[in-house]
Amino acid sequence: MKNHLSEEQFSERALGSASREINRHVEECPACRRQDEELRQTLAAFRDSIRKAAEAYERPWRAPEPARRPAWAGFMTQRWAYAAVLVAILVASVILLRIDHRRPSHPAPGVVSEDEILMQVQTDIGENVPKALAAGQLLLAGAEEPPASPADIKAGSKLRNRR
Amino acid sequence: MLQVIEGAFGEDDRKAASLELLKDFDSVVKRHQQRIYRVLLGMVRDRDAAETLTQESFMKAYEARSTYRGEASLSTWLIRIAINLAHDYHRNRRLDFWRRLFSGDSGPGEAAIRVPASGASPEQEVLATEKLAAVWSAAGKLSPKQRAVFVLRFVEEMSLNEIAAATGLRPGTVKIHLFRALAAVRKQMKEWQKSP
User: Fold this and answer.
1) Domain boundary among B75, B108, B141
2) B184 touches chain A (CB under 8 A)
3) What is the mean pLDDT of each run of 10 residues along chain B (196 residues)?
4) The domain boundary residue, chosen from B108, B136, B166
5) Are B101 and B143 in the same domain?
6) Which long-range contacts (CB under 8 A, 24 or more apart) does B168-177 make?
7) Most buried pick, B12, B55, B63, B109, via CB within 10 A?
8) Domain edges within chain A
9) Which of B34, B55, B155 sits opposite A47 (nearest CB)?
10) B9 is in which domain, residue-wise?
11) What ipTM was reported for this prediction?
């Protein structure tokens, strides 16, 4: 080896993984030997300074106490449970209301509502009442009496006589 | 892979380490605390921070002791915890820099590392202290990963495979980090020698 050691070769020396050739060069070359020695001393001084600083280091070990559950923790858990239930109820209510809202308020064409059927029945009943019961029906309904026809008056007197 | 790396760490060692962690954590701390402190001091370069992080490392290890499966030796496992904490510390310090910048606080100083007494003359001691300060300065300029492998290699004298197990890096990557760290240290030393 004619040239001086490279940066990598000095590192190999410091790590103790240099080849025989490198080691031989260090023995033969005073300049490289001086640099190699300089690096070794520097690293040794660094190591010794830390070791010296740590020599007196000794601290007693005290295991940490297991964390205690505070008294209010149970109450807080309960409160969270209540809050969750409340939120679930609210969400369910909103969903149900929205579903109900989507239903059509007017029946589809061709579908007759219950109220309309009831009106129809009442009208039919009104039309089909026999003439003999018309006066009674009027009495029951309490409606304004239409002007009585002679036939109605006759039928009414007949009813009274039967009683 | 870890079994291959740490071939010497057999089944019996693994069981013994697990049992010690669970039954006698006090002796684990006694046996490893200096080593963990050294690694952290080398990484964070602040005695108080290193001390706090050492305590925190053992606290973390205590909390996670039931998860130790023995893939690595106990020492390697503890060093890994310490390195992760040191990385977190560096991340927080980066944030601190901006906080300090706006608050005008200068922040914590670097470790006041003294040269071990060797019976040298006062001039030689001053020179050695300056040289050491230059190495520490060079170490301070390394990236956290480079600094970790540098400390594990040159302070703890761990092998490349052991460092790989402790840092989670590949042995080849560890070697690259070491080369770069050494080059940075050499560069710093040359600059220090040139300075009047």
Assistant:
1) B108
2) no
3) 48 73 84 95 91 94 86 89 93 67 46 60 82 87 92 95 94 95 91 78
4) B108
5) no
6) B168/B80, B169/B145, B174/B149, B175/A15, B177/B145, B177/B146, B177/B149, B177/B150
7) B55
8) 7-55, 116-162
9) B155
10) 1-108
11) 0.81
